[in-house]
Design a protein that fits this description.
Structural class: mainly beta
Order of helices and strands: EHEEEEEEEEEEEEEEEEEE
Strand order of the largest sheet: 1-6-2-8-9
Number of helices: 1
Radius of gyration: 21 Å
Distance between the termini: 34 Å
Largest sheet: 5 strands, antiparallel
Number of strands: 19
Shape: globular
Length: about 290
Amino acid sequence: MMNVPPPMRFAAMARQQFMSMQADGLLWKISITTGESGTDCNVLIDIYGDEGNTGDIQLGEAGAYEAGTTNDFAIKLPKDVGKIYKMRVSHDNSGEKNNWELKQIQMMNMAEGMILFKCDRFLSPTEDDKQIVRELPALKPGEEPLPVKKYHLDIKTGREKGAGSKAKVKIMLTGEKSNTGPRLLGAHNFLDDREDQLKKGRTARFFIEAVDLGPIINVEIGHDGETKKEGWLLQHILVKEDGGPSYFFPCDSWLCKERADGVTSRELTRNGIFDDSDDGEDDDDDDDEE
C-alpha cells in the first residue's frame, strides 16, 4: 500500500481551504455511498489513469461505512496518474460486517470536474458472486466507459510427485491497457466445486472480473508456501477472455523455496493467442498424492 497522507473527513476541511489546495490537481473530494449493508472492514481504492496508478489507498477507519450513508474524504493522490479511466475498490475482510453493498463512488476536483464510478453490487465473501474486489470504469459526460469483462483461468498443475499445493496463490494479469492487481485464488472464484484444486495433474478453473485489460501480455503468479511440501509445479495457464481470444502462458517450473531455483513466484510470458481454444480433457489423476 502506498505511503500517502491520510485522507481527511471533508467536513473537517473548510471548503475555501479545499479549493485553494487543488492547484496541483492532485487533491480530490471522494464520496462513497453505501447501500443497505455497511461494513467495518478496511476499505482500499486504487485509481488508474493513462500515466499509471496510485497503488492502494485506505479510506477512513474501519467501521466508517454505515448502511444508507455517504462518506466524504479529501485525499491528495501520491502522484499524477493522468486521465483517470478506472478504480479498483476492495475491503480486507477483517471485520465482522464484511457484506458491504457499495452503491457508487464519486471523485471531484477543480481541474477534471466530477468522475462517477457506479457499482450497485456487494463486496462480500458470501453475497453476489462472493468477490471482495470490484473494478469500476470511470463514467464521464460524453465519453464511453470501458467495459467490465470476465477472464477465465485454466491453471494446470504438473504430474510429478509432490506437484500439488495447498498454499495461498495470488495472480495478476497484465494487458496492453491495464492490470488486475494481485488477486487471491480460492473458493470465492472457483468455477467448479471440487476441493484440492491445485492437485497433481489437475486443471483448476477460476475467474477474475476486471475493466477491459486489452490483449493479455503477461501473468505474475506466486504463493505463500514456505516448505517443500507447500511447493507447486505449475505446468501452464490458459486465460480465456469472455467473448474474446484465449492466451497461453507456459511455465513447466516449480514454485518452491526448496526446489529448483528456490522462487515461489514467476512472471510468465505469453506464448500463443487462440480465437477458440480448448485445453483438452481434464486428465485428473486418481492418485490422492499431491
